[in-house]
Design the sequence.
């Protein structure tokens, strides 16, 4: 277990790992001087993305002077040579995304009063950002934390200012970099070079729509090109919000509907500003604090639903695209650039195997093992998705000659002058094959990153009430290492959890020998357990990527034979 760390007046509780973002790890925190306050500390590596970190610190130092119940309170920013510590208020009620997911799972709708209450609090929080001339640029449910006040009511608080910018005049359009989360990003972030604080008004409009319509997004797009087309269409066909179905005054429903339409206008000039929002008809109506049901214990069905919902939105692997990338090249005919393509194809094949296992495992546990322990399920999913994400990071490193994201073992194997020359030639190769490979890797990595973040958050919550196995703190420590790109370690943890208890639970049941899905799950588990011993990268030039993935055309008899040949029964 990691030792607690004293930093000025604060104790960073390294034993209390709370979560991880793109650039920092969050731990519990304590201070004698602030003993009545619930604290946490975000720890950043000072050398990572220095420009971005400096910008976030500048914003946080301004927020340190702000006292707004709807913004996460910043208590201190401590800069040291190697690390930066951001001590802030700790919220214990999760985030708005989790609350929305829970309502969706329970088939419940937010009431008109709840929608009005949440929207008002978000706007009041943003008003303080507006007053200090900050654009957030990443307003989304996961960046809105929740604190329960003990009376069934909640306080929502904006957080995560890493994408924020300070501007002289945030009401005027300015040339800025394109950032944000795609589903909540305003048209200007995709289609134009300039935008103002009204880009965040659009994001809130999307959130209001989700609150009003059971967590559904206001579009059906599943890919970036489809989303871009939706945004383009807003220019000629303004968004029309359907009628709300909640019980309550028709006037309130019409006010919410009208406000969503205005906030999701294509033109920034047509959207209300932050000063205008609180003056809108919805917030001129009398409002009272709303009651929210507490979230119960998550069940296996709930957990699997969230993964299935996520994969449905992300369309992680396009089969045709994947097969093109993983096409096997004969060793005697490939050029230097093709050699890298072949190596990357092996990375992709292993990633695809882990993706298929994740999907099939979810499906089969729901069908055949509905009482499977949700904590054990999340342990397995975190290992499988972690392996996939880390191996795609390595593939990205080879595609774009970024050796700093290649794990140490792979770097030792290939870090020589000949490889560097090959990688440089590959980087300058603009053939259709190579360009398509690079595009696919970037797309797959981005989507896998989202899945891994979800898996980490799920297991972190469950670890607070589960102590199995005895060395689970080591697994927790692994997740806290941001710059770790070692993929094999997630495979080894999967083997460990499998050998502890899980292989006894998933023992072969001969009565299911005609169930193709069940047989496929057992074969995929076996393949994943042996993935790095049977297909070592040391012998990459001898291997066919198609041998790594499971042939979709196998018959029941062939699957049954493979099950009988398993080593890890």
Sequence:
């Amino acid at each position: 277990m990691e030792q607690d760390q004293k930093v000025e007046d604060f104790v960073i509780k390294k034993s209390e790992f709370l979560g991880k973002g793109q650039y920092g790890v969050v731990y519990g925190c304590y201070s004698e001087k602030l003993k009545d306050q619930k604290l946490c500390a975000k720890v950043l590596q000072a050398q990572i993305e220095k420009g971005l970190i400096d910008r976030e610190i500048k914003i946080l130092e301004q927020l340190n002077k702000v006292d707004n119940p709807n913004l996460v309170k910043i208590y201190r920013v401590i800069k040291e040579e190697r690390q930066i510590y951001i001590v802030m208020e700790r919220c214990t009620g999760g985030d708005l995304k989790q609350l929305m997911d829970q309502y969706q799972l329970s088939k419940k709708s937010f009431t008109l009063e709840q929608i009005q209450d949440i929207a008002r609090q978000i706007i009041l929080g943003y008003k303080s950002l507006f007053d200090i001339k900050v654009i957030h640029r990443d307003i989304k449910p996961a960046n809105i934390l929740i604190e329960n006040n003990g009376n069934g009511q909640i306080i929502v608080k904006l957080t995560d200012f890493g994408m924020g910018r300070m501007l002289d005049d945030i009401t005027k359009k300015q040339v800025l970099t394109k950032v944000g989360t795609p589903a909540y990003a305003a048209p200007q972030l995709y289609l134009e070079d300039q935008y103002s604080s009204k880009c965040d008004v659009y994001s809130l409009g999307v959130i209001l729509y989700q609150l009003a319509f059971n967590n559904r997004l206001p579009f059906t797009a599943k890919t970036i090109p489809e989303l871009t087309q939706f945004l383009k269409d807003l220019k000629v066909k303004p968004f029309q919000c359907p009628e709300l179905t909640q019980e309550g005054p028709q006037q309130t429903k019409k006010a919410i509907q009208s406000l969503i339409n205005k906030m999701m206008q294509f033109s920034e000039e047509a959207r209300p500003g932050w000063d205008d929002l609180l003056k809108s008809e919805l917030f001129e109506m009398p409002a009272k604090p709303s009651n929210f049901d507490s979230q119960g214990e998550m069940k296996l069905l709930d957990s699997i639903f969230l993964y299935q919902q996520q994969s449905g939105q992300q369309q992680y692997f396009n089969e045709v695209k994947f097969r093109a990338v993983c096409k096997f090249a004969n060793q005697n005919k490939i050029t230097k650039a093709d050699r890298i393509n072949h190596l990357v194809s092996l990375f992709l094949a292993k990633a695809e195997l882990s993706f298929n296992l994740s999907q099939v495992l979810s499906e089969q546990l729901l069908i055949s093992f509905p009482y499977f322990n949700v904590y054990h399920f999340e342990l397995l999913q975190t290992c499988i998705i972690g392996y996939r994400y880390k191996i795609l990071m390595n593939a990205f490193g080879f595609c774009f000659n970024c050796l700093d994201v290649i794990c140490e073992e792979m770097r030792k194997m290939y870090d020589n002058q000949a490889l560097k020359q090959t990688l440089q030639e590959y980087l300058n190769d603009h053939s259709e094959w190579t360009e398509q490979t690079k595009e696919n890797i970037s797309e797959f990595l981005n989507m896998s990153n989202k899945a891994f973040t979800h898996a980490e958050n799920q297991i972190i919550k469950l670890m607070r009430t589960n102590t199995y196995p005895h060395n689970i703190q080591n697994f927790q420590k692994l997740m806290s290492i941001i710059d770790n790109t070692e993929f094999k370690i997630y495979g080894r943890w999967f083997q460990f959890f499998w050998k502890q208890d899980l292989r006894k639970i998933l023992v072969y049941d001969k009565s299911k020998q005609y169930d193709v899905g069940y047989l496929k799950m057992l074969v995929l588990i076996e393949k994943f357990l042996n993935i790095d011993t049977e297909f070592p990268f040391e012998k990459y030039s001898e291997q066919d990527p198609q041998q790594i993935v499971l042939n979709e055309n196998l018959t029941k008899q062939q699957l049954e034979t493979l099950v009988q040949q398993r080593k890890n029964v």
About this structure: The mean pLDDT is 79.
